Structures are given as C-alpha cells and as structure tokens.
Amino acid sequence: MRVPVTxxxxxxxxxxxxxxxxxxxxxxxxxxxxxxxxxxCYEPTSVLDLRHxxxxxxxxxxxxxxxxxxxxxxHDQPLEWDxxxxxxxxxxxxxxxxxxxxxxxxxxxxxxxxNHHHNSEPQxxxxxxxxxxxxxxxxxxxxxxxxxxxxxxxxxxxxxxSNVGFxxxxxxxxxxxxxxxxxxxxxxxxxxxxxxxxxxISPNSKPVGKPLQRAAVYFKDALQSLLxxxxxxxxxxxxxxxxxxxxxxxxxxxFSGISPIPMFSHFTxxxxxxxxxxxxxxxxxxxxxxxxGGQYASLMKELAEKADVSRTxxxxxxxxxxVPEEYAVESxxxxxxxxxxxxxxxIRFQIDFLLVRTFEILSFKAVKFMDGEKTAVLLxxxxxxxxxxxxxxxxxxxxxxxVSPSVVVFVDGEGMAESGATSFxxxxxSGLEFFSIMMESLDAAVPGGEMVRKIEAFLxxxxxxxxxxxxxxxxxxxxxxxxxxxxxxxELSQFADFQAQCLLGKVQVRGFHVAKRxxxxxxxxxxxxxxxxxxxxx
Length: 538
Description:
Elements: H1 68-73, H2 87-94, H3 166-181, H4 184-201, H5 211-230, H6 242-258, H7 261-277, E1 282-287, H8 294-310, E2 316-323, H9 328-344, E3 349-355, H10 356-362, E4 374-379, H11 381-387, H12 390-402, E5 407-412, H13 424-445, H14 450-469, H15 478-484, E6 488-490, H16 494-507, E7 512-517, E8 520-525, E9 528-537
C-alpha cells in the first residue's frame, strides 16, 4: 500500500536542530515533549485485559549492588500525583472480577517473602484474562486489499462531504513539506484549511471513511499539535485521568480480542526472554515501553508453570520500567495488578518506576542492579525516537553494553524499519502508510465497528502523535545502529516460530501471516510488516 505522493513544490532544506554529539559522561541527549508439541499452543493471558564496538565494555554495574533480600523487602514509593483516583469506581465501571489462577502443584519449598505494599494503599483486583478471539466470518465482509495509488475516486471526490478526499491528503503532505522548508506559517494556513474541511465533513471532528482517510485526519491533528509546540502554544501534558485510563484499557481489551498484534508482540517478547534467561533464578527486566504491563502476566505464568514442572521455586522477577512524567496513575495500576498476580503465583516480584528525565541525566546509573541476576533490556521505537540522532542512540547503546544484558529485545510495532529517511516529509508519508495499513487490518476484523474507532483514538493516536513529533529527528535505521554498536542478532527458535503460527491460527482473520526476516520474527498484514521482534546479544 502506498500513499499517493506528488512532487513537492517547496524546497527540501533540512532544518536540523540536533544537539552536539554527547560526550561519554554527559547526558544522553533525549528529546523532551526444545521439542515442539503439536498439541500445545501458547495462549497468552494478562491481568490487564480490559482490560538497543566489537566487544562488550568491561565495566562495573552502573549502580550500587544490593542484596536480594534488601531489594525485595524495600517498600518503593510510587510516583506521586495530585489527582485522587477512585480505584473502586474504576473497577465497578469496568465490571471486573478476579482472574482464576492456574492450579499449580505445591513445590517442595515455597518462598513467600513478597514485596508487600503499604496497607493504607487501596487494593486493586487484577483484571480478566485475554478473551478468546471471535470466529471470523468472511461472508460478512465487503473488503478488499487496495493499493493507495489506485484509490477509488468516487470515495474521495471533494464534493462528497462524507469522506476525506484525495486532495485532502495531497494538501496534508504539502503541509508536511513546509516543515522541511521551515515555512511554518504556510503550514498553518494549509492546516487551517484542512481543519475547516474536516469540520464540514464531521462536525464532531471524528475521523470517518476508509483507513487511509481516517489515518489522514489523525496525522493532520498530530501535525497541528507539532506546529503548536513549535510556536509555544501547545498545552502542558497533564497526568492521565482515571476515565482516560479506563477507556485505554477497554480499547486494549478490544484490540487484543480482534487483532493478533498485541498477542504476537507479547508472545515473541516473552519467548525471547525465556530462551535467553532459561534456568536463571533471578531475572531483571529493564523495560523502556511497559505500557499497561500486560505481557508480564503471561511471562509470570510461564515461569510459574516451568517451576512447577521442575519442582523448584519460581525465579525472582524484578522489573525496572522507564516511564514519562505523566505516567504516574498508570504506574500505580500496573504495580498493584502485577504484584497481586505474582503473589498468587508465588513469584517473588518487584517493580520500580524510573522517570525518563532521571534516566536521561544518569543513564543506567539510575537503575538498581544486584549480584547474581540475569538482565534483559526491552526496547521499542519510543526510546529510539526520543533519543533521535545517531550519536545519541550510539551513546545509549554504549552505556547499555556496560550492563552486559543477557539479551536485548527490540519490538518494532510502528514500522520503524522504514525510518532513516532524510526529510520530515518522507518520514511523515511512511508513517501515514503504516498506520493506514494497521487500520485496514482492524477493519478486516470488525468493519465499521465502534471498537475500532476506540482502538484508533486511545491506542493508535498517541503513537501517531509520537511518530509525527519525531519525524524531523532523522532517526537512523535501528539495525544499522545496533550492528555499529557491536551487537549481533540472535534468531528466535523454531519453537517460537511454530507457536507464533499456532497463535495466529486462533485469530482467523485473513491477511495476517508470520514470516522470518533478518533473524526477526515478523507479523505481516499482506505484504507489510506490522510487528517485528528481534533478539540481540552484546
């Protein structure tokens, strides 16, 4: 699928405001704003289902090493926020009930020293497991995989007030051109015209039409937000309200129910961790994009079941999540749910939340490490885009290699493999193509459904905004940077490939398939990769 693009009428001078190359001891330079059992298929579960030099650098761990017992008995203070959150109301509104925990045989010895929280904190029940995907009935669909260069003009004619037109997309790309030529006033004029058209098309400003048309509206809004930021008129980001979190969890539940994308991401990540950390009694995961933490319920269940089979104690699991400042409410929800789930599975567990602004100053020195633990690092496009320039990414990877992680897992769920373009416009168009294809895959599962609109508004829109905001940073191709830092890709096992295929068979939406690409395990919609998971060693 390709977005129709005309030759730009403005010059392509790049307005690059990157900071100087970071020195070794300076800030990172972040930008602010086994055998296969054919009868056994991995079925992910979640407590939140409503729901990155030739050889490693020899160096000490970046922070003080503490005894295991000290860490597990430490009462971490959650991130603070001013808003009073009524968790009971959230649970009632969501209609939640307790999960059923797998019946595990009693191990020979049980280690019950858990990370308890203050009794004054509200107790939150963990959320239900992933729903089973509904059967797919192709007779109910009127859908075909289309090429954007042959877009149906009857659906995009500007006189039709029910759809965003072809010329709307052309004008949108012209506005993106203005960011390359530094003609921001002209960009605002174009966006004002598009905003007016959008109000005529949809008085409530909700995106309507086919996937490309809806994606164009979200990218228009993201471009306007970026322009507001550049002129100093962008509002300060506040903490998420509880109602926003409820809607996000509901959207995530719906996304998990109709699309294989979330489950594929979680399964491949967990499988890469399990293969690299197998046999470890103490696991530490440093996560740069924890989201709602849903994957860790699946991981903990796997760890508990393996321990039950081997009649040993489950390993200690520590998570350090690097999160933005406005993530305080979500961090509380993630902490409470995962802690309770771990306790029911008899897994010793701790989770720490580290603010990005702290990490950008101290790097991995801000992370607590302990003797005897095996460390894994989870990366995503979020941290790569925040770092921006190649020098910043290279410095980050250099610091990471000093930690000597057992594995580094990179999950590209935003088409970042296509990044590295030399202009804002090209990155913008690449993002528009990617997210329109993702929306197309959603329509194939539930055409015209209200749940699809919620998924777009609460899950995809924030990613679109981040992609547009980072489009001018010239983010380097991540594979190139990884190899340049002396990292080597490690292929996931045939077992992982088989299980991914099995997982996909449960969804039964035509158009998805699993492929291998340069040691990556990739989930594709027709010929376009939507999620690519790779494992790396330092």
